[in-house]
């Protein structure tokens, strides 16, 4: 499928980001569309298109000609026809905006985030090998380091980590990690909210004061996280759940703290992901002491 976009001439460029045309056979018939801070105008010149609500109980809308959508406050699934002929107008953002979804973890050079027994080995050593103290962006009264002395990073790593932690609004994690750390006792290391992807409910009586939300679907998890985080970052823990969220097309960036160690086996950064997913070249490369910090944007 071919995409051709043009920025309109003044004065329309004050109100419109681009006018575009989509033609041809789509590589993927269905596309997840996240909440957006801008309106869209679509003119369909081909076969009918379908728009599915994030609520699976709502039947899809079928569009045969043109339609307008204001600010998208929740996620949709857009289903292209077998052959696409569509003209769109993408207006400049206004109103609601949502934060970036970043999949993040420390990782070995061969792609593992822990061994088979969930032991991270030396993957977190760089949190303690410097002289620059740093606290998480969450509850300052809880020692997330587990060492009793807090985190002390190299200056380069601290300058990389600190603004990210401070910008996180919500964390998305799997049930295995929640159980392993007991949800940090209701005090996340960054942000104010945690969404746990699990088929089991929140443990009865567990920290009722904490903003922890249990959902059984990765799309619902990101929807809830973005609702709570607003314009702040949604941090997704790598592993099986992170891989599912990437596969669903819901990750904007992949962040890796690469540690010079080979595990050989264990829990993979991307979990059981299947198929190829392209990333842009790293737009952030920071050399710390015993760690290389990398960030990649997901290619759309």
Task: Reconstruct the topology from this structure.
Layout: E1 2-6, E2 16-24, E3 30-33, E4 40-44, E5 49-53, E6 61-63, E7 66-69, E8 76-79, E9 84-91, E10 101-108, E11 112-114, E12 132-134, E13 151-153, H1 155-167, E14 168-174, H2 175-181, E15 193-197, E16 212-215, H3 218-229, E17 233-237, H4 240-247, E18 253-259, E19 267-268, E20 284-287, E21 292-297
Parallel strand pairs: 10-17, 10-18, 14-15, 14-17, 15-16
Antiparallel strand pairs: 1-2, 2-9, 3-8, 4-7, 4-9, 5-6, 5-8, 11-19, 12-13, 18-21, 20-21
Task: Give a structural overview.
The chain is mainly β. It folds into 2 domains: 90 residues, Jelly Rolls (Sandwich); 197 residues, Dihydrofolate Reductase, subunit A, CATH 3.40.430.10. It is 13% helix and 35% strand. It has 4 helices and 21 strands. The strands form 5 sheets. Strands 16-15-14-17-10-18-21-20 form an 8-stranded mixed beta sheet, sandwiched between helices. A 5-stranded antiparallel beta sheet has the order 1-2-9-4-7, with no helix packed on it. α2 links the parallel β14 and β15. The longest helix has 13 residues. The model has no long low-confidence stretch (mean pLDDT 88).
Give a brief outline of the structure.
The protein is mainly β. The chain has helices at residues 155-167, 175-181, 218-229, 240-247; strands at residues 2-6, 16-24, 30-33, 40-44, 49-53, 61-63, 66-69, 76-79, 84-91, 101-108, 112-114, 132-134, 151-153, 168-174, 193-197, 212-215, 233-237, 253-259, 267-268, 284-287, 292-297.
